[in-house]
Amino acid sequence: MSPSALFLIVFASLVIVALVVLLAATRRSLSGPIPGNHATAESKYPSGYWMSIGVAAGVALGLLLGLAVHSLAGGISIGIGVGLIAGKLLDKRYDKDVAEYTEQQKQERLRRATWGLIMMILLVLATLAAALLPLLD
């Protein structure tokens, strides 16, 4: 593997780790009390539990796929996508709380989704660059 491709993989991994740490540090559970006159939401699992299970399983399977096709970055990227889909499906199945979000919660979700989309685009570009750089050497 060329040094430039390895650098891109390490850089993308560090960005993912930093984003996960920031998300975990700033995340407030939506299963706790909702501000205002709303009833508290009762949930057996903390907010994001099933999503984290799905992403963890997706990354593990993506790593195996990446090892099988000799492209770790591509395998992990596919695994993250599959894990996000699986996590969302599990979340809908097991979390029956359909509480209405407050305006502040809606804005925070939109902001997080925007940052997630930006990071996803950057990671896809990094994956493409890591796949194309060896072809240019």
Descriptive account of the structure:
The chain has helices at residues 3-26, 49-69, 72-94, 103-136. Mean pLDDT is 75; it is low at 30-34 and 36-41. Helix content is 74%, strand content 0%. It has one domain (3-136). It has 137 residues and is an all-alpha fold. The longest helix is centred in the C-terminal third of the chain and has 34 residues, at 103-136.
N to C succession of SSEs:
HHHH
Percent helix among the residues? over 70%
Characterize the overall form.
Answer: globular
| Separation, N- and C-terminal Cα atoms | 11 Å
Residue fraction in strands:
under 5%
Task: Write down the domain tally.
Answer: 1
Number of strands: 0
Biggest sheet statistics: none
Q: What is the CA-based Rg, rounded?
A: 18 Å
- Secondary-structure-derived class: mainly alpha
Quick overview of this protein structure:
The protein is mostly helical and 137 residues long. It is built from 4 helices and no strands.
Give the SSE layout.
Layout (H helix, E strand, L loop, with lengths): L2 H24 L22 H21 L2 H23 L8 H34 L1
Please supply descriptive tags for the structure shown above:
74% helix; mainly alpha; 137 residues; 4 helices
